[in-house]
Predict the structure.
Amino acid sequence: MKKLTKIIAPLALLVLLAGCTTKEIEARPSDYNETLGDAILKDVYDSALTQKGYSAMAEELLYRIALAEKIDTERLDTIIKRLEDKVTTFQKDATYIDFGDYEKNPAGTDYFADGKEREYGTFKEEKAVAKLRVDGETLSDAGTLNLWNPEEVLKEVGKPNPAVVNTYISRTLYRQVVRDLLNEDYIIEKKSSYFKTSQFRRVEYTHVDFVSDDQIEATNRLYGYEKSLMENDGTTLEDIEADWQAYKVGIVNDEIAKIGTIDDEDQTYSNKYLDGVNLPEVSKNIARKNADEAEYYVETKLYANTDTIVNSTITSRIFTSSIGSSTNKDLYLIEDQNKTDNEGNTVTEPYYFLKTYVVEPLPIDSIIQDEAGTFYFVRLQIVNNIIGSNVDEFLASDDAEKVQLKWDVAEKLTEKSSNLAGNILYYLNKYKIGLHDQAFADYLKETYSYPEED
Amino acid sequence: MKKTAFSLALLLGVLVTGCSTKVVTPKKDNGKDVVVDFTPEGSGVSNITADDLYDDFLSGNIGSSLVFDQLYKAIVNKAIDDLDSTSRAILEQEVKQEMIDWVQDAKDQASSNGVSKDVMIDQLLEQEGVKTQKELEKKKLDAKIQTAVEEKYYEQNRGEFIKNYVAEYAPVHIRGILVKITNNSDPLFLRQISETEGKKLLNVFTQLQHGTEFIKLASNSQVSDHAASQLTAGGSLGIMDITTGFNSEFKLGVYSYLASEYPAAEAITRISADSKARNIEVITTADIDALTDAIERKEKDKNGKDIIDSTKKGAYQTSLIARNIVFNQRFNSHSVSYLAATVDTPSALRKTIGGVDVVANKSGDPILVLVDENGVQFIYLENNPFIEPSATEHYYSESADKVYYSIQTEGYQPETKEHFEDVAGVNNDGHIKSMVPFVSQGYNDKSNRKATVDTQVKNFVNKGFTSSISASDTFYKYSIFDKYYTSLKATEDIEGLGTSEKGLKLEAQVLSYMANARANRNLLIADAYEDLWEGLDKTIALQDTFFAPITSNPFVSGALATITHARPEELLDMTWTDDEFEHYSKFRYAGFAYGN
């Protein structure tokens, strides 16, 4: 027996060692070893794999997991919205803009004497299609179909519309969005504690750039805006922007009209509007354009305390820890909690104005003046107050606003890569991934530590 | 015994753990290898097969480029025999020698590194990305064949390329005289010329009208402000094609002329409708007289003081003086102009265009005048591809070199011949040597001339356009692909991608990949053309706005209220009130506060 053991042990060793040194398990396409004409498929496939990398395989796996999670159906509205945003961003890419167009020119004269349009132009579909095709996308002929409307391109999300071929939207962008949403799912599912510590602010703001030339009128307007907001008369920050912009455009037009009249005898307006480089009409049009296109309002968005809102001063005021307290002297509470708005809806969260600077001769103190003499009207929500102390309850809520906030916060949380640590491993474990190619298995082990050691 | 069994189990455990195949098992799905599977909760296992994944990898541009590379390799391997039947044997011989040298080098390195020859060879092969010397030899031969094919293909098809280049890039040989305008800080439509510059300009007008040969003037540093090398080359500015980095006004001037005279040029130069609509003007004797008169005038301000000719602060007065007003109104038109002939112009140097006699060169081509950022340019075109049926041949044929870098002595006035013969001497065939290296300054031998033409032609073949779009030899490879793929496939010299479903799909993909790259590049070039002319058109359009009559200056009254700034007599003869003068000085051109 002892003898037998002595024989078996080395034999077993040999068998095992031989087992370890057998050829690696390789999953390859059926025609891997075939030639295709003069082309050798093996070489082509291997080069393709080298260029795409195993990360592409992992991405495909995760995309399929995302579909298994039903993200494509359950988050349909979000997918469409995100795709639309991405398409808008794409259409603003200077690469695809024809800067030869002057559609926004109000006076019919070119803005720039050198003939170059710097900021304005129109999206040139033909140009974008040509570039995307070079990138390997398949698209319908430019100009004949509405290629840039995600709903039109997809018809039914996840199912490309055969009448509008646009793989850039239906495949490339769609996959990105679905993968992003899988990450957000992970945050909600596994990292809900981050909701408590997020300290996000939902902020919208507008600003007015105070004009000293017209003190009384400007001050009156400032006062009026402040009053409207404090009285909650339904004035929105966009309304303020529109009014202020119209006012500023009026000033510019009035001043330009004075050029060459007795009111400009000291050349104040000539010097202000005629820049010495462009022709007079060009200079005037630039000034008109700048006034007309000036943007004062920034729409509602979530901010983390690591983001910057306007500048560090305003950011620190918005993120001060005491902002939630209505008794703080730096705050002016404009509404009581649970007050109803003009349409009778319950306002679940108060809006705050920040009192940081007293502006004379304004009798009120609820606006921010920054260092450059610009006044900001800020409306903010303290996200943690809405989330409340019971995160699970918040996450389970059916309330549409809370559901939306849940997704918004999750999206914001994914911006920080450390919040996503372990997410892929989580899904690999959750879906009991079976491995049938050694190199890919090695990649998952090395990159995501999958499978985890017992 | 127990202890032994335990040890064995332990050993087995260690070995199994150390073996990385524990979790990886082979799997098939309908006969296809599965790479990975996953199991959604409550449902069955989903497989991702290698067929799916790899097909996906090949479907994008990476796959297309890889398949293209494979096909290209097959094509050049066959094309070499078609281009030159002796090449392959020579290249093979070269590679054999290189391999002998390579092995020797490996031995030397092994010796100096203290390793065996075999070890060193393995290391070097690995660096080359191959496993055997045979593979290395093949790699070297493939590379040599590719290079040889690409070189020979160009040489054999050079005529065709040049023909297309001439047809699409509109190259012209240009000779010019420049009267520089120093003060070029003003907008182009508000130039200020000095008295000296004005006189220099008048001199060129007069000399050309009196029949002095263009080339003689263009060689004279007292007349032309071009660089010395250009003067030596008889005013040659070399080849200008659509991609040449000459300034836009200059190019637009030349192409405006070509498009107006030769319908074929319109499409090729892609000149805009605005530019085409702009009439070519004629500089008349009256214009020249007005400038002569203006230069001679002493300009006085309201106090009777001379107006200071200065570019410094307060120099706004300079823009009011007669010569600048005349110059801007009558010469600075930003379209190209002809120069009217006078009674003194020899009949051989005249050409009648639109019923007007204008000054021409000895070939009968009109001399063109235009103003650009450098000053006033007088130019004429030689070997114009739109009027010379054999122009393409001129670019191509080395036997026509004399057309480009020498001057036939016939037809020139004796003093011109003498001047250049003194400088350069005469060839055996009676041509003045190396006088006009039209291709480029400094290139006065055949090989350099050929190299210069080839550089421009290759840039064209590789779809380069000005500095904004780099040439890419990928397009050259596509040209080789186009030339051989179909024919080689038809004769079964290469198998292409076969006729299977996958082969046909990949073939369509590769063809589409090339077509997409070309379409995108063509679009970029079209865009660059458009920007080039559009920007200039807009600048010129502004000039037209500027020349509109003054109607809104409240400080001018009476006759002055209706004049344009560009009418010197009225401006200077006006009786100004103090207020009028002061305000007019401030506002100058209808509230145009330029130059404060």
